[in-house]
Design a protein that fits this description.
alpha+beta, two-stranded antiparallel sheet, 3 helices, 112 residues, Alpha-Beta Plaits, 27% helix, four-stranded antiparallel β-sheet
Length: 112
Amino acid sequence: MNQLLVIHVPGEISDDIIDALIAHEETSGFSLTEIKGYSREHGQYNLEEQVAGCRRLYRFEVQHRAEQEHALLELLAGVCMASHARYWIIPLNQTGTLGSGKPLKITENVPP
């Protein structure tokens, strides 16, 4: 079954995460967006973030097979040694492609 790993990391390690995912042979691609993280715990905020009330983070989304989960988490844990990162893994019931003048193409359909 395919899964989606979502991980939020601070900006200071985002380039290292990008490098690690690009070098990881079993990762075919990933998405990256800049987000604002809000938390009751401000201990890791710098002065600018404390004034703004939020922290700039980067959200990575990596689709992967369940059997790749451990290796992918080990890879990312190595990069996140000196930083705090949160992640979660979501099962994907279906994936596919839409648009480009082509009919709907479902590439995976996994019953719940």
